[in-house]
UniProtKB/TrEMBL annotation:
It comes from the Eukaryota. Residues 646-670 are annotated as: Disordered. It comes from Lachnellula willkommii. PANTHER family: MAGNESIUM TRANSPORT PROTEIN CORA (PTHR47685:SF1). The chain crosses the membrane at residues 755-773, 785-803, 815-835, 842-864. This is Ankyrin repeat protein. Residues 701-734 form a coiled coil. Keywords: Coiled coil, Membrane, Transmembrane, Transmembrane helix.
Length: 870
């Protein structure tokens, strides 16, 4: 019995749970190094957990030897060297350090790097092997079978890839003949075309065909092998997209297809029993592991062969990085009500990374190096797979992100990957990360006590949606070979790993759930297609993608509602201020107009909701491809398992999958697959198996359709939010036109007032400004500007001023007789013409009437009228 009383506790329970199945994690994660030997000695020699511990220990020792041999030439060797140097300075474990020392292999005695990498990969990678078999002759259905040649029990039996791909007939289970009433399932943990070609050649006990020729045909004089027939271009390499060397590696994928393939090269089979299926499906990965995989792919991918001209162009024309920062839900109302004249900081989108630890504490450096060493050991096999097979012929197909699967022409999608909805929903909030050290929610009495909200935020792990591929072959109605990738660097699969889910489901399956190889194939397809649509709360880090999209759409909708309310409030305030102009303005009018003219908040919301719609569209496209492939697969197995035999394709029961009789649909959970075409039953049992299998196949199609419908509902909600934001922007644009019209009217009124003032100033200037007068100016000159007499009369040679008499001299009385009436008359007429609309209208009317009368009575007009109308 394992004692867990001294194990680490996470606050919600033990970090590795309380199940005896976690003894391996307990051994390496909780026990001191000095306690491990005693713990291992207490376990029985026949205990399988003890064997697992020893296997993991051997793996660690091999990796340590490899890192030692590589030395400072590789990053892994550098980390190990730094760890050992730091460990040597830690006095607390100097006694145990000798146990870590191992015999350092001489690099000169090892094979070349490529051979060593391939040897390590094939030894370290494990292929899952699952068997079903009828244990007795009177059994109706095949049941789980623990094959004696492999360790562990159903469905967890595994073998190394080296054994599965070897040409030794005694060791390779692919080359063993399949017993009657037996179903076999082999899984390869990567989309490696080279492994598949080798595995198929081993299955048919043939030589590995050379498919790299120009016509990909067998040599003259050599018959077509079954492997070559199975891998004809139209069924294999011809389906590969992105096979050119100059394209990015994420363009590689098999086009979604499902075929029935004949392997008989002598005559065409009327009912080919072999099925090949290529189907994309959605999965996930942490952003840190995705970024590490992208760096390794960039290191060993086609970019290392880029021409110098392209490199120079990339340096000469730098990439303009986006500086757009998404508006979060925190403080959105304050954001949209802020004054536009206040400059906003130019904040770029930052990647949340774990910076290299630079602390002065020796223990901190030791722990950091230990974590880095663990990460290097965990991902070493995956890195070597990319190094060895990425640019091979045939190549490895790496995992793709959601944007890489759709925008496959883009060379770099890292910024788009960190803009995914799932990434934003699972990443720590940048505001809370910055405010973590100055959090006011901490308990001042407890120095080391951390705020729960801050602690939960910093523990978040950003994740992204990935698009993986399922490659599946159903061979001879008794064997299935599949390959799809696992998560990056996961030596032990988590609960959301597809292969782990398949094994869990098969372990809990009913005794009659798998009757044939086609039932097992339907289970595999179903588990691949339902990764994000099983709403059971996951026990691992799998993101709830549908909830993430629903939350993102709901948040945008909430912000859009706030924007609408704020828009109408600002419109009401602006209208009230315009109607009540006499009230004092405290700045609210200007703020309201600034908000009405600022479209940045709504523009960012519109961009965010368009990104959501874009991602939902890509996911719907993936699901549509799944639906098409599954529909084709169901049609093929319908023809294969039809109870009407011997009549060819035309005699097959052509009932629609969606029209099966309701009384034949079993009242059991979804996908209760049953059928056994390889096992001989009577006609009645065969018909029942056919109906049940086809019913469950239709349920699989309906499940896929429901998943597609769920995505369409989310997309419809996002589109409604997008339309609402567009309506809001249109209203803002219309309101901006109203504001501009009001400002134009206001400006026109101000211009009119200024024009009147200028006119008055001009009139006063004309009337009151006096011209230059001569001493003996005649009276006619004096009266040209009447009001100038008020200032110029004292400069005249009036007899009352000079005291002299003369023939050209006037008395003041004579001057005022002309000056006063004329000045009053001219001033009155000028003011009336300047400020009276009625006078101007009457004068204009009189002028037009007079001018018209004058024109119509001229001889020329009379002559023209008589000439025209006669």
């Amino acid at each position: 019995m394992v004692d867990y009383t001294t194990c680490q506790n996470s606050g919600k329970g033990l970090v590795h749970g309380e199940s005896p199945d976690d003894v391996v994690l307990h051994y390496f994660g909780c026990l001191k190094f000095s306690e491990r030997a005693d713990f291992l000695a207490e376990l029985d020699e026949t205990n399988k957990l003890k064997l697992r511990i020893r296997e993991e220990t051997k793996r660690i020792e091999k990796l340590r030897d490899i890192f030692e041999a590589e030395g400072p030439r590789t990053s892994s060797g550098k980390v190990l060297d730094s760890f050992k140097k730091t460990l040597s300075h830690w006095s607390g474990i100097k006694r145990s350090y000798t146990h870590l020392e191992g015999a350092i292999p001489d690099p000169g005695t090892l094979d070349g790097p490529e051979e060593r990498a391939k040897e390590w990969i094939l030894d370290d990678m494990r292929a899952n092997v699952i068997y079903f078999k009828k244990h007795h002759e009177d059994d109706d259905n095949p049941g789980p079978y623990d094959h004696p040649a492999f360790v562990d029990n159903f469905p967890n039996q595994k073998i190394s890839l080296k054994q599965l791909l070897s040409s030794d007939k005694e060791k390779n289970p692919l080359m063993w003949p399949c017993e009657p009433n037996m179903i076999r399932y082999f899984h390869l943990p990567a989309n490696n075309m080279e492994w598949i070609e080798e595995a198929m050649a081993r299955f048919y006990n043939e030589e590995i065909p050379d498919l790299n020729g120009p016509y990909r045909k067998a040599r003259r004089g050599h018959p077509e092998s079954k492997t070559r027939m199975l891998f004809r271009p139209q069924y294999w390499r011809g389906l590969q997209h992105g096979d050119r060397v100059d394209l990015p590696t994420h363009t590689r994928h098999m086009r979604p297809r499902c075929y029935r393939i004949s392997t008989n090269h002598q005559s065409t089979e009327t009912r080919p029993k072999n099925l090949a299926l290529f189907m994309p499906y959605l999965h996930w990965e942490t952003d840190r592991r995705r970024a590490r995989a992208a760096n390794i792919i960039g290191k060993y991918g086609p970019n290392r062969w880029s021409p110098m001209v392209e490199v120079v162009e990339e340096v000469r024309i730098p990439v303009i990085k986006s500086t757009i920062d998404r508006t979060t839900s925190d403080g959105f109302l304050e954001h949209i009500t802020a004054r536009t004249e206040i400059p906003r900081p130019n904040s770029a989108t930052h990647k949340i990374t774990h910076k290299t630890f630079q602390g002065q504490k020796l223990l901190g450096r030791l722990l950091f190096l230990a974590a880095a060493l663990y990460e290097a050991m965990d991902a070493y096999t995956d890195e070597k797979i990319i190094e060895r097979y990425l640019m091979g012929r045939p190549p490895l197909h790496p995992r793709r992100t959601l944007d890489q699967s759709y925008y496959w022409t883009l060379k770099d999608t890292s910024r788009r990957d960190r803009d995914q909805v799932v990434y934003r929903e699972t990443a720590p909030s940048p505001k809370l990360v910055k405010a973590h050290h100055s959090c006011t929610k901490k308990d001042p009495t407890e120095k080391d006590k951390t705020c729960d909200q801050c602690l939960e935020n910093v523990r978040k792990t950003p994740r992204v949606v990935m698009v993986d591929q399922l490659w599946m072959w159903v061979l001879d109605e008794n064997t299935i070979i599949t390959c799809f990738p696992k998560r990056w660097g996961k030596n032990k699969p988590d609960e959301s790993a597809v292969q782990k889910c398949i094994r869990t489901r098969l372990r809990e399956a009913r005794i009659d759930e798998v009757r044939s190889v086609h039932d097992l194939a339907l289970i595999i397809i179903d588990q691949c297609s339902r990764v994000f649509f099983d709403r059971t709360q996951p026990t691992d880090m799998q993101p709830q993608v549908m909830d993430a999209f629903a939350n993102a759409i709901g948040r945008v909708t909430h912000k859009q509602t706030i924007s609408f309310e704020h828009f109408w409030e600002c419109t009401r305030m602006a209208s009230k201020r315009y109607n009540d102009r006499e009230e004092p303005d405290n700045g609210t009018s200007e703020k309201s107009q600034n908000v009405l003219l600022d479209i940045n908040p709504e523009g960012e919301l519109l961009r965010e909701i368009r990104d959501i719609i874009d991602e939902l569209f890509i996911m719907m496209q993936i699901k549509t491809q799944e639906q098409n492939v599954i529909s084709t697969f169901v049609k093929h197995i319908k023809r294969l398992i039809s109870p009407i035999r011997g009549g060819g394709e035309n005699s097959i029961d052509n009932r629609s999958e969606h029209s099966l009789p309701g009384n034949r649909r079993p009242a059991r959970p979804s996908l209760s697959f049953r059928n056994a075409p390889a096992i001989q039953f009577d006609h009645e049992s065969e018909t029942e198996d056919y109906d049940l299998t086809m019913t469950c196949a239709v349920e699989l199609l309906e499940s896929t359709e429901n998943q597609l419908l769920e995505l369409s509902y989310l997309k419809e909600a996002a589109e409604n939010a997008s339309l609402a934001l567009k309506d809001l922007l249109d209203l803002k644009q219309q309101q901006a036109g109203v504001v501009e019209a009001r400002e134009a009217v206001k400006q026109g009124e101000e211009t009119l007032k200024q024009g009147r003032a200028i006119m008055l100033f001009t009139i006063v200037t004309i009337v009151f400004v006096s011209p230059a007068y001569h001493v003996h100016a005649p009276l006619t000159n004096i009266t040209k500007l009447p009001l100038s007499f008020f200032t110029g009369v004292f400069g005249m040679n009036a007899t009352n001023l000079t005291g002299t008499d003369g023939p050209n001299l006037w008395q003041w009385g004579d001057i005022f007789v002309f000056m006063i009436p004329i000045s009053v008359l001219v001033t009155t007429i000028s003011l009336l013409l300047a400020f009276s609309k009625l006078i101007r209208a009457l004068l204009s009317f009189a002028f037009h009437i007079s001018w018209t009368w004058l024109i119509t009575h001229t001889p020329a007009y009379v002559s023209w009228r008589e000439t025209t109308f006669t």
